Amino acid sequence: MNTSKISIPQVIAIGGAFMGFVIGSSFASGQECMQYFSGHGVWGSIGAGIIAVILYAWFCVVIIEDGRNLKLAQTNKMFEFYLGKYLGKFCEWFTPVMLFLVYALMISAAGSTFEEYYGFNGNIGRIIMIAASLTTVLLGLKNLVKIVGYISPFILTGTIIIGILAIVKNPQGIKEADQVLNTIEVHSNFSNWIISGLLYAAYTVTGVVPYLAGIGSTTATSKKNAVVGGLFGSIAFLIAVMILNFGLLANIDSVYNLEIPSLFVAAQVSPVFGKIFAVMLILGIYTTAVPMMFTACNKVSENEKSTKYRIAAIVTAVAGFFGGQLSFSTMVGIIYPISGYVGLIIFAGMIYTKYIKKRSYEEFLTTIGEKNI
After folding, report:
1. Number of domains in the chain
2. Is the pLDDT of residue 221 over 90?
3. Domain-located, residue 4
4. Which of 26, 244, 250, 300 is most exposed by smallest CB count within 10 Å?
5. Rounded distance between C-alpha atoms, residue 120 and residue 124, angstroms
6. What is the residue-averaged pLDDT of the chain?
7. What is the rounded average pLDDT of the residues 37-65?
8. pTM (predicted TM-score)
9. Range of the domain at 65
10. Which residues of 22-34 are buried (b: 16+ CB within 10 A; e: fewer)?
């Protein structure tokens, strides 16, 4: 293969795989966008976005390229490469715990969607989502998880369209957003847009390290493809976030206290659009919940037919129901910052390993008893 040329299909595959992982209901709901970006106003959200996109581009490119070179049998070992044996082990176990919390977050999102859009008791939405995800995970339908992953591009497209139409419908709302924000209080743990942008990137890297390493190992055939693919995926996603951000800012006086702000904006654009987006959002919750639940159970037992695996799935479902009783916005405000602080440790480890220690791939592979393929 000619490695001097960039393969466009491969670049799209790499970038698309990354976007498929990070685009879920938290993004599509608008809640994480509200807390990390819109709450800081027009210029604050732009500043946070610039910080986030720089960090996204950096860690995507670095991890994908390292994954391409290491070709680890267990991609979780990437934590050990960046953080050493003990901190690496901590992150290996922290990740499935965090993914369980994200699963509970999805259950909460299902409840909020049913409450705010359909007017039903939130527990109906929670039970439906738990039943759907538990059934899928107990059957061990890995292929189904991959198939429903194709829904992500539609969620991305739909959310971008919502943002653009909201901006076009009320551009004056963006001009007045900073004034309005002085009179209301957006639920957020971040009073500073710099910290917000930093932690937005940091919370993402915590769960995505093994995944990006796998992309690098199985998909990227050259450094150029790894770099361009990582840049494409990270920049395209942050552009989508910024479009949604300005769509929310255009309606900030109406959406600042909602659990699912993008659903309100979609309904304002068009009632038909609102109904379509509500279905897309529920599908997005499902496509996020299933791999989160599967990964958490898989850490307990890799055998999908074992009693341990099934018990883990049932316990996760029950715990997810009780955890999902917390409001969606509250859970976003608790879980993502915790993940973000762990992500800062990972960033520090990456900087030390790559630019100060300059750890070689061969030395690390020898340490863990693997050979470079």
Report:
1. 1
2. no
3. no
4. 300
5. 7
6. 87
7. 95
8. 0.85
9. 9-368
10. bbbbbbbbbbbbb
